[in-house]
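Summary of Year 1 activities. Much of the first year was spent building the evaluation harness for sequence design. The harness presents a backbone, in tokenized form, and records the residue chosen at every position. We chose the following record to illustrate the format because it has been used consistently in internal testing since the harness was completed.
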């Protein structure tokens, strides 16, 4: 695997919904589940030409040279996570967000508006949900795998971001499709 993708890249950010609670309640099964989760992610990201540049607890931050590769990695990972036989007390529900843009790379990490935007998009998602920004959707819509669709969730105001983002949800056979409203400024009024 070569070094970090540079220039305009597609980011895939993920994290496990409710992981703190799972750790508190079931530390041992959670440790085993997390090891399996990490293996599934690393394999899928590597298989699709991605690069994990940061992990924070149970969160993965990866970049891909192309948006379709990032989408395929997210799709494969969700399918594998849903097939996995987790301990009954700690099924892992992972939320994911994809966004692309030109980010500054420094010492193996990325900085800049695209990184902030993908992080905010991730925080709007629910466990097992995959969200894409409009720039990502534009690059993948003509190359979607068979049976895969993108559902337009409209413009959403994401915390701390000046410009709203048009958000799309990945729909694919075998993946959950019904979720509560996104965790955006529209759904959480703050005065």
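For this record, the design step produced the sequence shown next.
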């Amino acid at each position: 695997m070569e070094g970090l993708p540079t220039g305009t890249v597609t980011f895939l950010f993920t994290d496990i919904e409710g992981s703190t609670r799972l750790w508190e309640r079931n530390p041992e099964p959670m440790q085993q589940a997390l090891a399996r989760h990490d293996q599934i992610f690393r394999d899928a990201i590597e298989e699709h030409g991605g690069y994990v540049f940061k992990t924070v607890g149970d969160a993965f931050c990866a970049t891909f040279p192309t948006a379709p590769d990032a989408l395929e990695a997210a799709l494969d990972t969700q399918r594998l996570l849903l097939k996995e036989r987790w301990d009954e007390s700690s099924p892992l529900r992972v939320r994911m967000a994809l966004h692309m843009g030109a980010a500054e790379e420094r010492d193996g990490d990325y900085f800049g508006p695209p990184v902030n935007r993908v992080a905010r998009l991730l925080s709007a998602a629910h466990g097992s949900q995959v969200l894409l920004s409009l720039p990502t959707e534009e690059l993948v819509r003509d190359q979607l795998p068979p049976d895969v669709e993108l559902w337009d969730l409209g413009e959403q105001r994401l915390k701390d971001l000046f410009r709203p983002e048009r958000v799309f949800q990945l729909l694919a056979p075998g993946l959950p499709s019904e979720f509560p409203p996104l965790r955006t400024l529209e759904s959480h009024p703050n005065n």
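The beta strands are 8-16, 51-56, 59-64, 94-102, 104-106, 109-111, 130-133, 149-156, 165-171. Quantitative recovery figures across the full test set are reported in Table 2.
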